[in-house]
Design brief:
Elements: H1 7-23, H2 32-44, H3 63-75, H4 84-97, H5 100-111, E1 117-120, E2 136-140, E3 143-154, E4 161-167, E5 178-184, E6 190-195, E7 204-214, E8 219-220, H6 226-262, H7 270-298, H8 306-329, H9 340-346, H10 357-368
Parallel strand pairs: 1-4
Antiparallel strand pairs: 2-3, 3-7, 4-5, 5-8, 6-7
Helix pairs in contact: 1-3, 3-6, 4-5, 4-6, 6-7, 6-8, 7-8, 8-9, 8-10
């Protein structure tokens, strides 16, 4: 599939480029409120989630057009927008599993950044293996009472709502006892505390839930179906938006390094040249796999374990290139324009975000290769 050949795709790309060229002519601050303002500017022209239905602020764009959209945002070095978790994870979950009332209530406000969302999945003892989660929701009358703790929650301190996974059933297989909820983070009993990372950022938070009351219409889909519903959001994160965006961003970083090498501004050693060659191969592989993802989704196929394979491929490419930049150009102030140290440090998280390396390999070994599951240690 060539995303540049179809007339409709070319027209879509041209319209988006014209918008970005005009919109990026003004200065945009890189703090959270600047990201929110940027998202609202995108939303005004329906460029936040073009693949969403038009009634919720999208453009009914095809998956091929969505791939073009991600590439063009990276090419233009467009700022991040504030509600990435809402658009990339919560939105797809609500579109696939939410009620009509939930979609009408939340989706437009997600796209406009009026409501910021986070993902309340990971816990201190259940990071990637969500079947171990301990946060519990019990039904008292027509109210759900939720108690537990979540951690590594992106934008948890800024969020208005969270996509919450909690255990509602006992005496069943672990993955069958989970339900998915909309959690109002402004409700009594919610305490979101920012976490500072090695890059100096506080993008993550730990969220404590102390007997938080949720109304009956907070439940998304069927009770006990949270494992399947939660995986909808994870597949969107692992297999579509994130790897497409990162592929484009990594390609820009690699192209800049190659330009500096050609101008003799950077003179790599023979071993470093080998690393750069491997980076070129890694990004070619990632691009081909992303194109296969687009083809699968365009044909109406589910991603399944392919999302795990994509995540591992992106992780390897990102960490390898981050280390290459650091080795070939030398350490720099993490806050400098090149951000070489920041790239190297930030891509350490690639082994964790969207599910750890080990969990993704287990998924592939068990579900794709048919290998036996390792017994759970007690």
């Amino acid at each position: 599939m060539d995303l540049a050949q179809d007339d409709a795709q070319r027209a879509f790309r041209d319209e988006l480029r014209a918008f970005l060229d005009a919109a990026l002519g003004t200065e945009i601050s890189d703090d959270f409120e600047g990201q929110r303002a940027w998202q609202r500017l995108l939303y005004a022209s329906r460029w936040v989630a073009p693949h969403w239905p038009a009634q919720y602020g999208g453009r009914d764009a095809s998956i091929e057009q969505f791939a073009i959209y991600i590439e063009e945002l990276a090419r233009a070095r467009a700022p991040q927008f504030a509600n990435r978790v809402g658009v990339q994870t919560a939105g797809p979950v609500l579109l696939a599993h939410g009620s009509h009332e939930q979609r009408e209530r939340y989706l437009t406000r997600i796209a406009s950044a009026d409501d910021i969302w986070c993902q309340l999945y990971s816990e201190p003892g259940a990071g990637s293996d969500l079947t171990n989660l301990r946060t519990a929701a019990r039904l008292e009358g027509d109210t759900w009472r939720v108690t537990g703790q979540k951690v590594w929650t992106s934008y948890g301190a800024q969020a208005d709502f969270g996509l919450l996974l909690a255990r509602t059933e006992v005496g069943v297989a672990p993955h069958l006892g989970i339900s998915c909820f909309v959690c109002d983070l402004r409700a009594p009993g919610v305490d979101a505390r920012p976490l500072r990372t090695m890059t100096g950022e506080s993008e993550f938070a730990e969220v404590f839930l102390d007997d938080v009351a949720l109304p009956p219409d907070a439940l998304i889909g069927e009770r006990g179906a949270g494992w399947e519903i939660g995986n909808t959001g994870l597949a969107s994160e692992r297999g579509v938006a994130f790897p497409l965006k990162e592929q484009a961003a990594l390609q820009i970083m690699l192209d800049e390094l190659l330009d500096r090498v050609r101008r003799d501004e950077v003179v790599p050693t023979p071993l470093q040249r080998d690393r750069i060659a491997q980076d070129i191969v890694n990004l070619h592989v990632l691009r081909l796999m992303n194109l296969k993802t687009v083809s699968q989704l365009s044909a109406g196929s589910e991603l399944g374990t392919w999302a795990s394979l994509i995540k591992l491929t992106w992780e390897q490419a990102a960490q390898h290139l981050g280390d290459t930049l650091f080795e070939t150009t030398g350490p720099a102030d993490p806050m400098d324009e090149d951000g070489r140290a920041t790239a190297m440090l930030r891509y350490r998280m690639a082994s964790l975000v969207g599910g750890t390396t080990q969990i993704q390999r287990n998924i592939l070994s068990e579900r794709r290769l048919g290998l036996p599951r390792e017994p759970r240690r007690t």
